[in-house]
Each structure stands twice: as C-alpha cells, then as structure tokens.
Amino acid sequence: MTRNYRLGIEYVDKGSTNNISDQFLRWININGSGMRNTPGIRPLKYVNKLLDDVPAYIILVTNDKSSGEKNPWDDIVDFSSGEILYWGDAKCHIEKRYNEFEGNKKLEIIYDKILENKSEHVPPILHFSKPRKGIVRFNGLCILDKLELTWYIDGTTSLPIKNYRCHLKILDVEEVDINWLHDRAKGHDISQIDNNAPKVWKDYKRGRIKSLQVWKNKIRKMEEQLPKLDSLEDKVLNQLVSLSPNEFETVIVSLFKQLKEVTHSITKTRPSRDGGFDFYGHFTLPYPLSYEISFLGEVKRFGRNTAVQPKHVSRLVARLSRGQYGIFVTTSFYTKQAQQEVLEDGYPVKLISGVDLIYLLRELRLVQNDKLSEAWLNSVIEDVKE
C-alpha cells in the first residue's frame, strides 16, 4: 500500500500505532525506529544502527496558535518564500544548557554534518503543523539551511531562554512517499538508502537546492496589518504614536540600525529639510558581491484608524532615483489601493505596517514587560535632544 504525504493536506493523528485510522504515528513509525508521540522534535533511528549519531529522518511538529497573535518565538511557516523558522526544544532549566536538550542535540549534530560537507549523513526533515486536536497538516520536505543561536521569552516564567532557531528550506516537491523514509530507516548501505528518494532530495545531496515558491496575494486587509484593538501589542504601538514626530523618526532609524542580518548604513534627515523623505542609506550585499543598494525611507505616525493612502506612497516613489529602493513605515495600515499601486506598478517600495513594527521590536528584544524598553527608548530620545 502506497502512503504519501502531500503538501498542505491534513491527516488524522490519533497518537497511536495501533489505531488503524491513524495517518501520522502509525504511518511513519516502524519497529525499532523509536518515534515518540511527543515532543515537537522527533528523530527516528536507523533500525540496523547504520549511523549511531544522526537520525534516519526527523519529524518536526508545530502547534498552531489559536489566538492569531504572532511573536518571534512562535514557529513560522512561509510558503511564499519556501521557508520555515522552527525553535529548538530548550526550556527554562536550572542545570541544562540549550544544547543539552535532546532535540537540540540532534539539530546540532546535523548542522555539524552539513558544515563538514557530509551530505550522505544529513537526514531529511518533514514538517507538520497541528491546526487542531487529532489533525496534522503536512508542510513539506525540508532541509536545515541555518542553525541560529538566539533567545526567546519563556511563556511561563517570562525569562529569556537561549535556544536554537532552525532556518529550514522547503524543497520543491508536492508529495513524499513514506516507503522512502522506511527504506532509510531499515537501510544497510549508506550509498543505497536514497535510491527511492524524490529528485529534489537527490539534487540537494549533489549540492543543488530547489526550494518551494508559492505565489500568494500580497494585499493585506486592515486587520492583518494591525495588532488586535486593546491588546498588549496595541498598547506598545500606542507608545510609538504618543512620541513626537521627530522622536518617532529617530526611533525608526534606530530600529533599522540594529538589524544585524544585512550590512547597512542609515541616516535621518533634518526635520526642516527632509525633501519628502525622513531617512536614507544603503544596504551592502555580502562578500564577494559587496554591492551597495541605495534606499530612501518615509515614516507616518498615524493612529490605527488613519490609513496610508496612495498619495502618501506616491510622494516617496516620486523621490526615488533610478536604482533606488523605498521603505515606507507607519504605525497604522495601508489601503488596498495604496498596496495595489505598489504591486501592480512594480514600485521598488517595502510597506511596513503597525504589526510589522511590533514584530520587529520583539525580534530585537526591545519590548520588555509588554512595553517598550525604557532604557532603550530613553537613550534614543536623548539623541533627539542633543
């Protein structure tokens, strides 16, 4: 009997290999492979101990949030970019370090194999979400692209916890044959275990990566651009709205300066001579390209009921020189027409809304006790007074 997992399809999870209706644990597990019903990181062993230090394959499971509010320490599945951000299993513990938790141990070993260029030892990763009790949704066959060491806030203790965050790439394949996974787990010869693997997996082992890219409508509704009214995130946003225009512009520039993933420089313009924009600078692509991309930015400190209109965005677009990019930042949201003009006319402008700002602040650990970090905010405002 052929059993496949297809991208985006939901399957029954009864949590038992003995339940004939189970399409998760019963399908994946075989005698000796040792798949557990919990936790989120579930490595499966080689039955014949072909390799002792790495698993035959790994199942990752994410519990979908029912509240709809996202934090940087939630897992993120983004089909449009073919990427998944998945947190390791480190928890608040008086003795254990982040890399002493079972799941993180396996992730660290796998990433070491990747860095050592031992592709034949690297296992495939299958990612699932749990949208509701008794159901899992297949999100794709993945590879570990990067293992980032960072911090998250423990939901119980509110303490910062050091943990791994996996950057996964979803490979461009619609379905995965479970027989291939079983072949790996039961294999005797490392050179033969992927004979029945999907082509994209064989290509990956040869050094070629074809990741999934799914087109999606990028027009966001108002409720997708703002935190829920009267939520903790909304109160943080109101702190930004309460700043003076000059203070707010300085805060936004300070935020961009703290981004570490891309080398960049950014300068705030003088309030009386902004020329239609509030900051400018350039991003530098990493070595060996080392190519600079110039940008202009504009900010609008609007209340949540005041939308950014096409006329506001057009002002920034009109200031862009050939080859320049634009960044528009607001504490509010963009109308459908404003977004359509940017997308349909192909303007090189990134639109950052209120909820994007909240996410950025949390990602940079600048929200503490559900409000802006006082020490950071005061230091930024001091720069305005000088």
Total helices: the number is 11
Computed structural class: alpha+beta
Can you give the helix content as a percent range?
25-40%
| Rg measurement, Å | 24 Å
Which CATH architecture of the largest domain would you pick? Roll
Number of strands: 19
Tell me the quaternary state.
single chain
Order of helices and strands: EEHEEEEHEEEEHHHHHEEEEHEEHEHEEH
The CATH topology name of the largest domain reads PUA domain-like
- Please describe the biggest sheet, giving its number of strands, its sense, and whether it closes into a barrel: 8 strands, mixed
What is the class of the largest domain in the CATH system? Mainly Beta
Give the overall shape, derived from the CA principal axes: elongated
N-to-C CA distance? 73 Å
| Count of separate structural domains | 2
